[in-house]
Input
Amino acid sequence: MALPDPASLTLERDEAPGLRAWLKSPADWLVMILGTLYWGVFGSLLTVLGLMLRPFSGQIACQRLGRFLLHVLFRVFARFLRIMRVLELDAGALSKLSRTGGPMILAPNHAALWDAVFIISRVPGVVCVMKKSILRNPFLGGGARLAGFIANDGMTRTIRAATKSLHSGSRLLFFPEGTRTTPDARWINPLKGGCALIAMRSGVPVHPIFIRSSSRFLQKGWPLWRRPVFPIHIRIDVGEPLVPEPGESAHSFTLRLQATFEQELSRPHELRRQITHGGGSSTT
Output
């Protein structure tokens, strides 16, 4: 595919700053309301279901049910965004992970808040490592607890729980940056060592996942009142799996994974990340 002119790659060319852009787009308000109702209703139902099944929450069958329900809910939500022309998602590359048997670590760059939604919508049976505060959220936490998702509330506990989950055959979703990519980062934040430690303890391959977007909507620091340009184009690609080499340190593996992300995300692409200067952006 030929790349468009660099002038057309400005990721943040919004129609107008502040609330005025939203007020000119009543259809977008409708999408926001429907999306909020979707999560409010189904998130609450999952929370209720999780409370009912709490005595059995540690059982594998119960966790598989939670992961299946989240997979379906996320898939329906992604389809809703596409139908409403909010999102154009190209995530076909994730299908090969769905067909791959055995445990694995899915390691994406963390471009925006909804990254996990799109990955889980395409790859069933995923266990996600997430912030502890999300597990306590009344609308999002119920389903995550039911699915046996892991709270990132301490390196030792997280690595132990993640390794145990992988040994049971799970697909682990782990963001090696530890948080969303900061606006001033060129390609990706410096990676934390947790992903390497989990891979070394479990002996499970790490599949780097590359997320590119035409917008920085829901990125770190994006104000919710700021309207992006719709539809947002997102592409998700999958790299070759990485496995710690004999005698390789966690630090060395982390640097190797970092280099893999930087090499892929820096290559010419119509959705290549842009450098921000204050509130705007420029191409490279």
